[in-house]
Design brief:
heterodimer, A: mainly alpha, globular, B: 621 residues, alpha+beta, five-stranded antiparallel beta sheet, 22 strands, rod-shaped
């Protein structure tokens, strides 16, 4: 049993006390349900920000551009196999579902940071949007850490197997090495579109996972 | 030629409508996709509206292709969702996939494509209305409240977490116009408070996925609230009872402290106070040991009650203060200036103005007048001698000008003005008490400054004892002292009003002559008893009291007749003077001087030395 005292930041709230898995003295014990709730809240906020940014982009920026070829939109995360329906998602095992979530989150870390950097130098977005982009990239990073903690807890509780240990390697999860070219070709509009969708996927997958593992309330 | 033209036009006119009618059939108009909705995020339906059909039967078909795929599929189900609709079942529905949908209208002449629409099922979710909406009335300590509960729509799978629904409900009274909306979040139950008792409420619920559209409102549920007393009204009842209670307590407290409240709100007006006036003492009327002096008061008429009996030294003080202020406080009614004025009819002499407050004797001034004018009963009316007259005023008014008791004395000068030959004094009844109190008065400690006594025969007149008759037959005796203080003050007046030739002397009442006159005789310093007081300071003239006339007026004699006083006394003594008097009388006779001071107590002879003190130099007691 490895005792982990980690700090989980969910939904932007900072908890000063470290989280201990087994409730030792001096540590603040969080149940799995609480962890899931925090993570889900965080993902919900992330998705709302992405939706706002996308709508702003379509409202203010797109008319000024003669954007064509919307059909050939390619998200750089298209290589990640994600369930496209309820049955498909329910057919996946917990570990696989968790893995998908983590893959998505990992895949979006760099592009979002790049997007933020591009936005600062462009006139398309105002300062408010650039702040949102910055917050978005930060949230992805935090959410990923949170989901990792949830996965660790589930593994400790024996709910999932230990096959996820391979996910922590950056090479396996980082799609940028494979799709670096694609991420560069993505336009801002496509990026926002793709991220909005992927954040929704993450949120949905987390909810399914939660209701499957800890179905106490809200399911 | 012309005929050919006419025929062509005729044929053309007949054929053209037919041809034209065939040309009215056109390809169909452009259809339009109106909306696509998914109730459960697992299936969805799209609807379109048709354009003009072009006069020919037109068929519509829907084609779609998924993003990043060139494969075009046609709508699998045109009928489930009704006309002009396309229903996508679960197998054909992919979430998080962009559908590009186009509707094509086709008729015999052609077809027409609608504008393509991009649809992502995730964002077109509109669930059905919540089901099993139940409303119930529950009770708690605050009153009844509504509990609304519902279930999610059957198709939406919230149990697996696939869809997260948030709910909203609205309430209103049946007759009200506006709804009251409440967000219920993800819970499936809601409480509504503050109800109108006896009202009928309508409740509706709807839901929405976290990213999607609101459902329709559920069918209204009606509920009736039973009658009850609202808490607000009971609170007012409690407040009213409490206020009434407080009010009663305040009233009770004020009633208990009625006097002090009244004292606080309506301070009492201070009543008149008499300085130095002891009402108790006045009521008792003690003439004994404190009766050192008595006023010899001259009063007006029978009806006048000038002074209360037993006025003592303190009354002197009162009189003293009389001149200083004109208010009636501190005086008896007899001393009242206004009272006297009324009774005397306001008779005043011209010289009154020179006197301060000729109060007490002012009325007596009128009496002077009366006595002068109509007193025919005065037998002996000696010529007015200034000296004699003067002495008398000096008794009562030692100083004309500045004395505080000026009033007291000043008035007595009036007889001087009127040139009465005889000054008659009416001795008030108070000084000579009634027969009832006579024994009391009969043996006073009669100590005046001279140590001499004067006694007066006193008889009550038929009238109310106002005037004293000097009659021998009654022989009630009364002793009166003269005001010592007056005597004192006479000191001041000694040099003022007296003629230099005149000297102050004590007057001795020797006897009462036949005419009921008080015979006075000036006293000499020698030949007095042990209780005599030497007064060698000033020689004063005394005027003899000749007697008291019928009006009980003290008649003063001229000085020159004083020498005869002894005769009178001798005469008197024969009549019944007591034995002890004899020696004194002999003394008086031989010396012809001032009468001998005698103990007056048992003496009935008026010839014993009784005198009117005129000397202000009387030693004080």
């Amino acid at each position: 049993m490895v005792l982990l005292c980690v700090e989980l930041r969910g939904s932007g709230s900072a908890s000063a006390a470290p989280i201990c898995v087994h409730g030792q003295a001096g540590c603040h014990f969080l149940s799995l349900a609480d962890l899931f709730d925090r993570v889900i809240q965080h993902s919900a906020r992330m998705h709302s920000i992405s939706s706002d940014l996308h709508s702003e982009f379509e409202q203010y920026v797109l008319p000024s551009r003669n954007h064509i070829g919307r059909i050939n939109r390619h998200c750089h995360t298209a290589t990640i196999l994600t369930p496209n329906g309820k049955e498909n998602a329910q057919r996946l095992a917990r570990e696989e579902l968790t893995e998908v979530i983590l893959k998505l989150l990992v895949a979006w870390k760099d592009p979002l940071w790049q997007f933020h950097q591009n936005m600062v130098h462009q006139d398309d977005f105002n300062n408010f949007s650039s702040n949102k982009a910055l917050e978005m990239s930060y949230m992805v990073h935090e959410l990923r850490k949170g989901v990792e903690k949830v996965a660790d807890k589930m593994q400790h509780l024996g709910m999932i197997s230990n096959t996820l240990s391979g996910l922590s390697s950056p090479e396996a999860l980082d799609p940028s090495s494979d799709t670096c070219g694609e991420s560069q070709a993505m336009s801002d509009h496509d990026l926002l579109y793709c991220f909005r969708r992927d954040s929704n996927k993450v949120q949905n997958y987390l909810k399914i996972l939660k209701c499957r593992i800890v179905p106490e309330n809200g399911c | 030629m012309m005929w050919r033209d006419v025929g062509v036009t005729l044929i053309l006119s007949l054929i053209l409508p037919v041809v034209a009618q065939g040309a009215r059939h056109t390809p169909p108009g452009k259809p339009k996709l109106t909306s696509c909705r998914s109730p459960d995020k697992e299936t969805f339906t799209c609807w379109w509206e048709a354009g003009s059909d072009g006069g020919r039967p037109t068929t519509y078909s829907l084609f779609y292709h998924k993003e990043n795929s060139e494969t075009v599929y046609e709508c699998p189900d045109y009928h489930t969702a009704g006309a002009n609709s396309c229903f996508f079942n679960k197998n054909e529905t992919s979430i998080w996939v962009n559908y590009n949908i186009t509707v094509v209208a086709t008729n015999a002449l052609g077809n027409n494509f609608s504008d393509p629409v991009d649809v992502d099922v995730v964002y077109i979710v509109q669930p059905h209305t919540p089901e099993n909406v139940t409303v119930g009335v529950l009770e708690d300590e605050d009153g009844p409240f509504l509990r609304v509960s519902w279930e999610p729509p059957r198709k939406a799978d919230t149990r697996s977490g696939w869809i997260t629904l948030i709910y909203e409900l609205r309430v209103k009274l049946e007759e009200a116009e506006e709804w009251e909306e409440h967000r219920a979040g993800q819970q499936k139950m809601f409480n509504i408070f503050s109800l109108h008792s006896g009202g009928v409420y309508m409740v509706q619920v709807r839901c929405k996925p976290d990213h999607g559209f609101w459902s329709e409102w559920s069918t209204a549920s009606y509920v009736k609230v039973p009658d009850y007393i609202p808490r607000e009204r009971s609170m007012w009842i409690l407040i009213a009872v409490f206020s009434a209670f407080i009010f009663l307590i305040l009233t009770w407290i004020i009633t208990l402290n009625r006097s002090s409240v009244k004292h606080c709100l309506l301070p009492p007006v201070p009543g008149p106070k008499i300085k130095g006036f002891d009402q108790q003492l006045l009521k008792k009327g003690k003439p004994e040991e404190d009766l050192l002096v008595e006023y010899l008061e001259v009063y007006v008429n029978e009806k006048q009650e000038l002074m209360p009996e037993g006025k003592d030294l303190r009354d002197v003080g009162c009189l003293k203060s009389k001149s200083q202020s004109d208010n009636d406080s501190g005086r008896g009614s007899c001393d009242s200036h206004t009272l006297l004025m009324e009774k005397c009819g306001g008779v005043e002499s011209k010289d009154e103005s020179s006197y301060e407050e000729p109060e007490l004797l002012q009325g007596q001034a009128g009496s002077w007048e009366r006595l002068e004018r109509g007193d025919s009963q005065v037998v002996d009316t000696p010529d007015s001698s200034d000296a004699r007259v003067k002495t008398w005023p000096l008794v009562f008014s030692p100083s004309i000008h500045g004395s505080s008791d000026n009033h007291h004395y000043g008035t007595l000068e009036m007889p001087k003005q009127h040139s009465t030959s005889e000054i008659t004094y009416s001795v008030p009844d108070h000084l000579f008490p009634t027969s009832t109190s006579f024994p009391h008065h009969h043996h006073p400690e009669y100590r005046d400054s001279l140590g001499e006594y004067s006694e007066y025969r006193h008889s009550r007149s038929p009238s109310t004892g106002v005037l004293y008759h000097w009659e021998a037959q009654h022989h009630p005796q009364a002793h009166s002292n003269f005001n010592i203080r007056n005597l004192e003050r006479q000191k001041e007046a000694t040099g003022l009003g007296l003629p230099p030739s005149r000297s102050m002397e004590y007057v001795e009442v020797q006897k009462v002559n036949q005419e009921n006159q008080l015979v006075l005789k000036p006293l000499s310093s020698h030949g007095r008893g042990p209780s005599q007081v030497q007064f060698g300071r000033a020689v004063v003239d005394y005027s003899k009291v000749n007697g008291v006339n019928n009006d009980n007026v003290l008649l003063l004699q001229r000085q020159r007749e004083m020498a005869e006083a002894g005769q009178y006394c001798d005469y008197r003594e024969k009549e019944g003077a007591e034995a002890e008097r004899y020696p004194t009388q002999q003394q008086g006779k031989t010396t012809k001087d001032g009468p001998v001071a005698t103990q007056l107590q048992e003496s009935t002879c008026l010839t014993t030395s009784g005198y009117v003190d005129t000397v202000p130099t009387m030693p004080t007691f």
